[in-house]
Amino acid sequence: MNQLSGKEALEKLREGNRKFxxxxxxxxxxxxxxxxxxxxxxxHPYAAVxxxxxxxxxxxxxxxxxxGEIFTIRIAGNVIEDSQMGSVEYAVxxxxxxxxxxxxxxxxxxxxxxxxxxxxxRVGVIxxxxxQAIRNEKDARKASIRNVLYQAEKVRKQFPDVLVVxxxxxxxxxxxxxxxx
Length: 181
Ligand SMILES: [Zn+2]
Fold this sequence. Notes:
The chain is an alpha/beta fold. Helix content is about 45%, strand content about 15%. The longest helix has 19 residues, at about 140-160. The radius of gyration is 16 Å and the shape is globular. Zinc ion binds next to helix 5.
């Protein structure tokens, strides 16, 4: 199976998001046929998406994707720690994916906690990573943007040959702001 280039994959996601904005249901293929097809021949997703665990940001829906289309890594605050980087490495080296999207969102609780300086408990592993990214930024939206730019830069350093795109999802409008290409 021929893998899509980073740019082709990005165009597919952009198109999927345009479709999503006016959709009531996800039009992605989740049929029995695609289940059997992917069970038989394996998965060949064309993009990896690192997204927040927030229940309002569902990558497959936001991009109108069905089974086998995107390799999704979800963690509160969409940070890239060792296990997320390992998952990205798997996507690049074993699934031949040429596009990695780092997808933050508006009103992110993890970013809010980082702004307020909450670093206790296990959550601190995440918020400390976000604080590194946002530094003294107190505006929630700007901080979310700084965070995705920072995490994207980290991934780019590890995988300079793939397209890495930071993006911000608007939880109200359903729109994605692509921050760089
Ligand atoms: Zn979030």
